[in-house]
Amino acid sequence: MTKRHQTLGEYIIENQNSFKYSSGELSKLINALRLAAKVVNHEVNKAGLVDILGAAGEVNIQGENQQKLDVMANNIFIQTLRNREIVCGIASEEEDDYISINSHDDNHQNKYVVLIDPLDGSSNIDVNVSVGTIFSVYRRITPIGTPVQMEDFLQPGRNQVAAGYIVYGTSTMIVYTTGDGVNGFTLNPAIGTFYLSNPNMQFPENGKIYSVNEGNYIHFPQGVKDYIKYCQKEEEDRPYTSRYIGSLVSDFHRNMIKGGIYMYPKSSKAEEGKLRLLYECNPMAFLAEQAGGKASNGYQRILDLQPTELHQRVPFFCGSKNMVTKVEEFIQNA
Ligand code: AHG
Ligand code: MN
Ligand code: MN
Ligand code: MN
Q1: ipTM value of the model?
Q2: Ligand 3 centroid distance, CA of 119 (Å)
Q3: Ligand 1 within 6 A of 117 CB?
């Protein structure tokens, strides 16, 4: 049940038993993510005042220059989950390999693994534009009581038991699903509490916003170029509006509320696109579908892709159902 202005803590307790594998473990996990979100929010908010802007001086496994806040957010989420001993493994955009978490008596009793993009949109940190965090939760498939294995992380997105994001925006929000719709909670920073502000979020079936880095236009496949031209054509309810923040979380959040499509196609410069299947596309695809939207690589449902490696990239088209279907048509008919 969703009651507007319920706190996230109340909501978690009230809905704990409706979750099909309920043992309280998932609730504890969401609680830990909520706590880490508040700590990261605090750091992001004061970023302009203390020396945490700019590059950290390291390059991550993705080949990107890590920002100080990338590293900080990564450490905060990992430490919060590790200290509470509520997951058996973590994989992160900012870590080369997955992390196996032992319980204090070393018998690995926890059944969930978490995959995170600790700080999404990190190119926006230094210019005071919204950034986010994305998380994804699976039940392990190897036996409980043994160390986690790579296969526990390389599950198709349809196996997710929970996914969500935090957007550090004009307000800070946590938006998540456990497979029973999508709910959004807004942080009241004065008292540090998230309140249910957006119950049962839904993607409008049709939208009028398209979000893509058009600077890469020349490198896009013909079908994507054709779709962009279609969006710009004066016909029916078009031309559409173009909006691109460069933070997937923020672009997705806006499109879910207003109706729109987010695209990160492959290009002649990036054969598989840029976005990471495990930390970005799968969780957003799960949220999109739970909100009545759609997510595709142009040919197939994102949630049906079988991952082959932790840091795998895929082309990503996500948002209002009819818009995603339309871009698929253009791609497949080009
Ligand atoms: P991250 O900051 O986690 O590395 O992700 C950045 C992603 C995504 O948030 C964003 O939509 C996209 O990269 C922007 O890429 P371009 O700058 O190539 O448009
Ligand atoms: Mn990055
Ligand atoms: Mn990201
Ligand atoms: Mn990131």
Answers
A1: 0.97
A2: 7
A3: yes
